[in-house]
């Protein structure tokens, strides 16, 4: 079990990561605006599932292997960038279909959220390079990862739930098709911009 100070500092770092706009936050907000609160929670569960995958990678040592492989990190970066651009193009196409955006099945929303977070460059950097700095080599490894993981998921869920409720409230104010179409296109453009930014960045 990590010391209390470590848990607090990690919690602050987790909050800053999860509250800042990125692919995961954008996905949750976009799905909520498009289809309502239920879709927002489905997307949120997908996002959290992707983070659990990264926690499992850390616990099994896979994240440490990725940290030493420039080829693996490069592949992950390009895969994440390509997926974000793909989501942006799909979002733009669906926004052009009046009078309402595509109502995707909940299972697809969940799966896309999970893939989005697994390929999220910001999350990859956090688990590959940042989280290991909070691990004490003198202490048992798995209990530390479990404790830090519990803190991460708890904070991520609270933040994402807040985004779902905020986006749901905003959706009720957007009563015109024009407003919803513009919002969808704005989120599509942001996806594409994030993808281009991820492709241009370097994960070290």
Query: What is the helical fraction, as a range of percent?
Result: over 70%
* Number of domains as seen in the coordinates: 1
Query: What percentage of amino acids are in beta strands?
Result: under 5%
* Number of distinct helices: 9
**Major sheet, described briefly?**
none
What class do helices, strands and sheet pairing give?
A: mainly alpha
Question: Shape, please?
Answer: globular
Overall radius of gyration: 18 Å
N-to-C order of helices and strands: HHHHHHHHH
Low-pLDDT sequence parts: none
Task: Please provide the count of β strands.
Answer: 0
Compute the separation of the termini in Å: 28 Å
> What's the average pLDDT?
81
Quick structural gist:
This protein is mostly helical and 204 residues long. The protein has one domain.
